[in-house]
Amino acid sequence: MRASSSPGEQSEHTDVAGEGIAKAAAGKSACFGPSCRYTPSSILGLAASEIAPDDHHPGHAPVAARSLTRTPIGRTIRPMSLTVAIGRPESTVDRCERTLRHAILSGELRPGELLPPERTLAASFDVNRVTVRSALTRLASSNLVSVRQGRGYRVEDFHQTAGPEQLSALVAAREGQPALVSLCRELLRARRHLAGALVERLAELAATTTLDTTAVSDAVDAFAEAVDVGELTGIVAADTGVVRALLQLSSSSVLQLCFNPLLSVLESSPSLRAAVYAEPETNLVAYRWLLSWLKAPTSESSTALLALLSERDAATLARL
């Protein structure tokens, strides 16, 4: 066995033996190539002897060191209940990245675990090593994994290293699970606090100048039209348009950047989207009230506005 200078290869302790490579190359059930028929539990198939413990982190065993299960590609740690739902054209890099990201955010790959070598992942996904390396580079740039020369890729604790841009993928990893409700509760709580900051900012501006609410009014009218049509995707897009118009009116770059990941979650989560827009007519009533509030905001009306949002969030959680 040889040591590799590539960050994607494990050291001589983690290099895959010829027999392991043959097994990986033969297993085509977990792939993204032309003949792909994805089997989640075979994605990270490795024998325990093929990866050594992390000497620098003795408390963390490598991926393949626990609960081995036979799969078409050697053996793996534990069955992985991943699904790859492709709703639009994706590159193989996109799919590899999304699958590994899902495994990390769902907790199937735990902090401190070492990923299999690039060659084994490439065989499992039925792609070349350049594709796998590109996917891993993306994950590293998102701080979901870290790489050390000669040691390979190590899973990071995303709670400590990643940013809010991972929220959409985190919700996707919780879809269909009881944990989704608690996660959405915190998302809605964060949105309410940001909405409070937005209301405060708009009231502050209205106290010193006359706000031009034309763009907001137009966005609300577009939302009303979308509600009449009744198509959920159009309703979500129009609702996002109202929020963005309000953020533009606030002239706050900070608020706009903070709202972006939350808006992405609403646009991408089927469960949360259905719960939030179950009764879009009530959303429209709230927006009409908001337009009136913008003409003469008071502290009392601001409090009432936020109380209404809190009630609506409680209804959303009840639907979930």
Describe the structure.
The chain is mostly helical and 320 residues long. The chain has two domains: 145 residues, Arc Repressor Mutant, subunit A; 154 residues, Four Helix Bundle (Hemerythrin (Met), subunit A) (Up-down Bundle), CATH 1.20.120. Helices cover 56% and strands 4% of the residues. The protein has 13 helices and four strands. It has a two-stranded antiparallel sheet with strand order 1-2. The chain has a two-stranded antiparallel sheet with strand order 3-4. α8 runs antiparallel to α9, α9 runs antiparallel to α10 and α12 runs antiparallel to α13. It is elongated. The chain starts with 17 loop residues before the first helix and ends with a helix.
Give a topology summary.
Blueprint: H1 18-26, E1 69-70, E2 75-76, H2 92-105, H3 118-125, H4 129-141, E3 145-148, E4 152-155, H5 158-161, H6 167-174, H7 179-206, H8 214-229, H9 232-250, H10 253-268, H11 270-276, H12 280-295, H13 299-319
Antiparallel strand pairs: 1-2, 3-4
Helix pairs in contact: 1-3, 2-4, 2-6, 3-4, 6-10, 7-9, 7-10, 7-13, 8-9, 8-12, 9-10, 10-11, 12-13
